Amino acid sequence: MKNLRSPLTALLLAFAMAFGILSVAAPADAVVNTGTIIPSPSPTFSGNTLWSVSCVSSTWCMSAGMSSEGGVLIHFDGTTAVEVPHPPSVTDERLFGISCASDTHCIAVGQRVRELVTGVETYILESDGTNWSVVTSPNVGSGDNFLTSVSCTSSTSCVAVGFYYSENAPWTTPAQPLAMIWDGDDWTIVDVFPTGSGDNKLNSVSCTSATSCIAVGEYNSAAAQTLAMTWNGSIWTTVNPPNTGSGDNILTSVSCTSATSCVAVGEYNDGSNLQALALKWEGSSWSSISAPPGTGDNSLRAVSCVSSTVCVAVGESLTESDLIPLMATWDGTNWTVFAAPTSTDGGGYSYGISCSSENSCLVAGQVGWPSQNLLIELTETDLPAVTTTTTSPEPLAPSFTG
Fold first, then answer.
1. Count of domains in the chain?
2. Which one of 78, 81, 256, 304 has the largest count of C-beta atoms within 10 Å of its C-beta?
């Protein structure tokens, strides 16, 4: 599937309601609108990528990813990002998802190469706030098993999702959806039934309680189609969202703030370009919402919501040869794109985001070649006032300066 990206431009709209001098400041409830790149350790020369991040507060975040030598965990204390040691796997491992219910409990999920046999299996790490340890995790069938995402509402309640192949030959059998739950002691696989006969992959999960989760991804029909499922603590139920056009539609991330309020993002192919895709869940069905605008190819990789009217989504835009991070806030009705920082190595890819409040988020990803880890801190900064001046006592239209 083609990846998308496009340039980002931040636009400030000012309104003049009367003649004379008028100052319009940023609203009191402004959300994140500024990004700062945080120097981040990259353990190896190449192959460094941060896929996911989870923030408990603006001064406590943990991100998970990989290097060319295995899984990587990086902690951010609001000022500095440092690599966190964890038990080395006997075989090569990768971390794709992380969720921290508190600063004393995190779960990271991914995959590792099986010992003595061909293929990969699920891989899970648990932290007590000080140390990380490997947790035994189940697999389905004899083929490859992958965990892509995890969501924890407490130290004794987590849901992880992904996909697996029933046989050790992925090209001969379709991918099947995979889900498992954590009760504080053990991981247990729960049944999740595929849609159609093609590939079914779950890319992201978000839980607001032990009995309320949404998982999203894709299934393969004539083209890739959006896939979404609800978890009530006992069973998974498919509630597929709408698709746009006849091309591929894929959901890469979902964030819920209640059982009746979620936003999911991804991408679709309009026949010429990849376009950003955004959907909302209101408790019984999905509906399409306008995605952040861009030029050329556009993709949304991740979203984080702190309420039904405050979400932040990240991805990329590609125009000509420029790769630029795409970042936007959602107010429950509209998206507002804001300028994203770029490093000297280029725009980079944003794969994960976690917002601890409406004015504090951390973005995780990868930048440059050979690839290096990328962390971007998002904050809310008061925008400069816009001053309106007029030279006529009865102007037909205001004159803007400043």
1. 1
2. 304
